[in-house]
Design brief:
The protein is α+β, with helices and mostly antiparallel strands. The protein has 5 helices and 7 strands, in the order αβααββββαββα. The model has no long low-confidence stretch (mean pLDDT 93).
């Protein structure tokens, strides 16, 4: 479990599901140009977790982007996958909040499982 998620858990809150960026980020022109340093930093500094009360997502190291949203404030989680993404098990999730906010996170491992875990917890 990542340190950001662990450090931001509230009393009585526990992690139900956690995933990471897919290693596909290592296969890109950007990875080649930075000698794979940039995608490795991206992999090790990204955290995606579902707790029994909310979703916690953190990406970035120096420039950090976070999303912490209560499960009841989420309208839906959309999953977008290419053919290669379906074969290799990665995709993009779009978290849509009740105010119409849309947060997009690409190259997530097992995005369908992430959505299913959200649906299981919000209905529990």
């Amino acid at each position: 479990m990542g340190s950001y998620v662990q450090n931001n858990l509230n009393t009585g809150e526990e992690v139900v599901y956690e995933t990471y960026l897919h290693p596909i980020v290592l296969v890109s022109f950007r990875a080649f140009c930075t000698l794979w340093v940039a995608p490795l930093v991206e992999i090790f500094t990204s955290e995606f977790a579902i707790t029994n009360k909310r979703i916690i997502i953190k990406v970035g190291f120096i420039s950090r982007r976070t999303l912490e949203m209560n499960l009841q404030k989420i309208e839906s989680i959309n999953v977008n996958q290419s053919v290669l993404g379906r074969i290799l098990g990665y995709g993009t999730i779009v978290v849509i909040g009740t105010g119409g906010t849309k947060e997009r996170f690409a190259n997530i491992s097992n995005p369908l499982k992430f959505r299913k875990q959200y649906q299981n917890n919000v209905n529990a």
